[in-house]
Amino acid sequence: MKKILLAEDEEVLRMLIVDTMEDEGYEIDEAVDGKEALEKIEQADYDLLILDYMMPQVTGLEVIENIRKNPLKKDAKILMLSAKNQQSEQEKILDIGADYFMSKPFSPLALLEKVEEIINEN
């Protein structure tokens, strides 16, 4: 079973994503902000990290920066979710170290398709 960390501060969206992913057999850990995401990343290995850009305490960008500096976690696959979908923001997100970008709003099925594409790249 593939293990995913979802860091998203919007509870309803987080629940919808978790339900969709679990229905397809993924094991999902949840974080409500970037600080909690970093704590969970230190404690476990994930096949994919799905991070919201704008979270309280620690942003998705700050989470990526921390991960990429950590020699044990730096190769983690990261999908960034963001309502900031201008080209310059997407480039910034990818330059900082996200592997993939998906703009909000999106359908849970579109996210599921993206996750399956990422997971099946190996």
UniProtKB/TrEMBL annotation:
It comes from the Bacteria. One of its GO terms (biological process) is phosphorelay signal transduction system. SMART domains: REC. Keywords: DNA-binding, Phosphoprotein, Transcription, Transcription regulation, Two-component regulatory system. The modification 4-aspartylphosphate is found at residue 52. Pfam families: Response_reg. Residues 3-119 form the Response regulatory domain. GO terms for molecular function: DNA binding. InterPro entries: Bact_response_regulator, CheY-like_superfamily, Sig_transdc_resp-reg_receiver. This is Response regulatory domain-containing protein. It comes from Paraliobacillus quinghaiensis. The lineage of its organism: Bacteria, Bacillati, Bacillota, Bacilli, Bacillales.
